[in-house]
Each structure stands twice: as C-alpha cells, then as structure tokens.
Amino acid sequence: MGELADEIREHAVPVLTNGLGAALTVVLAQLIVPMLSSLGSALPGIGVPVNTLVTIGVVLLLFYFLYQVVRHLKPIAEAASDLVSELVLGQREESVRTATYNLILGIIAVLAAVMLSPLVVSLPGLGALLSILVLVVGLGAGGLFLVKAAKDYYSAFKEKLEELADRLAEWAEELEKRAERAREERGES
How many independent structural domains does the chain possess? Predict the structure, then answer.
C-alpha cells in the first residue's frame, strides 16, 4: 500500500477521537462551569473557587487533546503533501510539507482560540480580559501561520500556476478570436 494510506490507517482514529474529546470537553465545560459559578463555593483552606479550578483543568485537558490532534495529523499531512507535490511537481518538495504543517497549525490555533475564549470568561477578576487576549493571540497566531502557508504554497507551485495562467489566457484568446469571427460573419464590426 501507499505511504498516505498507511498513515491514514495508523493516525485517523487518534485524530478523530482526540478531536471529539476536545469538542466534548468544551461542551461539558460550558454546561458545568456556569453551574459551579452559581454555587459560589470555594475550596476550604485555599479559598480558590471551584469553577476556577475546573476551568483551569478544562483548559489543560483541551491543550492535551489539541496537541494529540496535531501530533497525529502531522504524519498524514506529510504523506499527503509528498503525494501532491510528486503528482503536481514531479518530485517531493519540503516547502509543500512546511506549508501544509503551517496550514494545520493555523487552523488549530484559530480553533483553540475560539474554543478557549468562552471558557476563560468564567474566571473571576480578569476573565473577560483574558478571554479577549486568548482570542486575539490565537487568531493572530493562526493568521500568521495561514499567511506563511499561503506564501510557501505559492512559491512551491508558482511555475505550475503560471503555466495554468498561460493556458487560461490562450483559451481566452481563442474564445475572443471565435467571437470576433462570429461578429465578422454576421457583418458586425
């Protein structure tokens, strides 16, 4: 079998289960943390609200799940990148691998920010500010990864994209010539 098929067989289930784990963690936290906040109970001896400890635990668990998703997506992405670069460019290109990995990191950073931001709001004191900070940093980092991926993809496929543009321009010229001949046959100028 091919390298991509082997990587999918080995890593698809962990990607899906960890992704599902991350989603369920966020959903359950959205249900549980507000109830704990309404109780207003603090742990005896340390005085830390229960909802704060649960939120910190959820954030750590979410980071674990997202790390596992990235860890298992990387081999699949590398094999897919190698296959695409071999099919399109005729050889394996490291820049395609790097671009694909940056694409994955960008998507994960954006998803993590969107998932974490509502969770940290419940933290007493700076929760709202921390939520905005998490969102801004996550979206900014994700955006930077996505821009880097786009630049790497463009540099890797620049020649093929220029060939495609030339073919499209030739096709457009042919259509223009046909339209011109059709106008001449109708007697238009």
Answer: 1
Neighbours of 148 (CB within 10 A): 17
Q: What is the spatial distance between Cα 86 and Cα 38, in angstroms, rounded to a whole number?
A: 57
Q: Is 42 helix (H, G, I), strand (E, B) or coil?
A: strand
Whether residue 188 is contained in a domain is answered as no
Expressed as residue numbers, the domain containing 87 is: 3-156
Distance between CA atoms of residues 10 and 146, nearest Å: 27
pLDDT at residue 13, rounded to an integer = 96
In a domain, 184, yes or no: no
Q: Per the domain annotation, does 129 fall within a domain?
A: yes
CA atoms within 13 A of residue 155's CA, in its CB half-sphere: 12
Asked if residues 117 and 127 have their Cβ atoms less than 8 Å apart, the reply is: no
pTM: 0.72
Please determine, for residue 97, whether its predicted confidence score (pLDDT) is greater than 60. yes
Tens-place pLDDT, residues 57-72: 988 999 999 999 999 9
